[in-house]
Every structure is written in C-alpha cells, then in structure tokens.
Amino acid sequence: MSKGKLDGRVALVTGAGQGIGREIVLKLTAESALVLANDLDADRLAALQADVARAGGTCEVFPGDVTEKDFGDRALAECLRRFGDLHILINNAGYIWNSRIVNQSDDQWYAMLDIHATAPFRLLRAAGRHFRQMAKEGHATQARKVVNISSISGLFGEATQFSYSAAKSALVGMTRSLAKDWGRYNATVNCVAFGFIETRLTQAFEGEAPQIEIGDRKVKVGLDAAQVELMKGLIPLGRAGTPQEGAGAVYLFCLPESDFISGEIVVAAGGLRM
Predict the structure, then answer these.
(1) pLDDT tens-place values along the chain, 274 residues long
(2) According to the CATH classification, is domain 10-196+242-268 in 3.40.50.720?
(3) Which end of the chain has fewer beta carbons closer than 10 Å to its terminal beta carbon, N or C?
C-alpha cells in the first residue's frame, strides 16, 4: 500500500461499526492513517478490521460504550498504548430517539444528551489534555484535527427531534469554543452537520417502524416511505447522500490542506436548508 496523505497519523473514530463511521475509517486508512475504531458492536468492528486489513490498511478496534464516564480517558490511553499518539479525533457515535416534546420522557432527554454531548465532551477533555502536553513538549508542528458530527437538526431544529436537536446544537457551540481555545496547540476543531444520509437511522419503511438495540433499550428509527420521498424532493440535488459521501465531508477536515480552517460548520445535505 503506497503512502497516502495521512501517513503516520493516528485517528480515533467513534461509532465506527457501520454507516458513516465505517466509511470514515475506510477512507482514513486508505490514506494510510492508523485508526482506533470504536463501536458498541464488537462483531461489526471485527468485520471492519478485516476489510481494512485486506485493503492493506491499519485498524485496531476498541469496543465499548462512549457514554461510560471513563470512556474518554480509556480511549485516549488505548490510542497511546497502541500507536503512541493521537492526531485526529472524530466524534461520530450517536443515534436518534424521536418524538415531540409533549411525549418525551426524562430518560429520552438524557439519553440524547449523553450520547451526543456528554460523551464527546469527555473525549474532547481527554484529547485536549494530550494536545496540551504535546504542545508543551514541542510536538505541535503538524496540525491535530478534531471533527465533531452534528446535524441540520442541530442547526435549524426539527419538530420531532427536540432532544436530539438540542444535543446536536451543543456540538456546534463546543466546536466553536474549542477552535478559539486550541489554536495554541495547533489543533483545528470543525464540525460536519449532516442532512439526509442513507443509514439505518433514515431507512424507509411502510407500516411499523424498525427498531435498533442500544444496550438494553429498543429505539424506533427510520422514516415513513412517503416522508423519504418528500425529503428527497426538498433536497436540491434530488437525492439522499451516501455514507461514503458523508465520510468524504469529514475527510476534508482531516487533510493537511485544511490546516488553516478551524471553527467551521460544514453542512453536508445536498443543498438542503430546513
């Protein structure tokens, strides 16, 4: 495998077992990054690792729940143990749990905040301490990269995604705050806000909504087939995005060419503004 643009760079990607997260790992490793991939599903991680190896890349796996209080510190420690450094952090793990506010429970509210805001906070805190130490030791000549994953729901809101929108909006504020704070560590902090990307969370259905398992919880996901067609009609490009295209938007912020871009929110939604 020839050297790519991210040769020698160490990346940590959460929620990497499927969908956009999986494609992010495949993209980064194809460009020679060394990746520690996290997901709740160890089997999906094993399959990802095998695919990366067949393509000549390097991917280590770290199964676990990002919402556990010590996850951020443990994930950083694992990166350092296996690869010796951390250069790229992608906060991608997440899921949806939709309903209007009058039907939302406290559990639903906290679940969305935990996965989309608190878990990234803990990872960012751990990464920030490492970036600070590396800068003190004179290892900040090459820009470090953070990419947080938000949503157009976090920018513009969505009637049935009150808690999800609030949590995704928090990531926007976190991104802009850290961009102002971490420039001294030569670290860029940016955010990708996704629109309609074809994943298990946005799958079309007729009749009963499909469910996914998150720990011991079952959550309904997907969109009614009529909603899917309506959404596609609102997108100027006339279609949903693919997970590969979602990964491409994240990849832009990982490249050396984006070393002077920080604090930005890029919308990957095919031109859709809600």
Answers:
(1) 578 999 999 999 999 999 999 999 999 999 999 999 999 999 999 999 999 999 999 999 999 999 999 999 999 999 999 999 999 999 999 998 888 899 989 999 999 999 999 999 999 999 999 999 999 999 888 999 999 999 999 999 988 889 999 999 999 999 999 999 999 999 999 999 999 898 877 776 777 777 778 877 887 777 777 777 888 888 999 999 999 999 999 999 999 999 999 999 999 999 988 6
(2) yes
(3) N
- Three-state secondary structure along the chain? CCCCCCCCCEEEECCCCCHHHHHHHHHHHHCCCEEEECCCCHHHHHHHHHHHHHCCCEEEECCCCCCCCCHHHHHHHHHHHHHCCCCEEEECCCCCCCECHHHCCHHHHHHHHHHHHHHHHHHHHHHHHHHHHHHHCCCCCCCEEEEEEEEHHHHHCCCCEHHHHHHHHHHHHHHHHHHHHHHHHCEEEEEEEECCECCCCCCEECCCCCEEEECCEEEECCEEHHHHHHHHHHCCCCCCECHHHHHHHHHHCCCHHHCCCCCCEEEECCCCCC
* Domain ranges, ordered by start, for the chain: 10-196+242-268
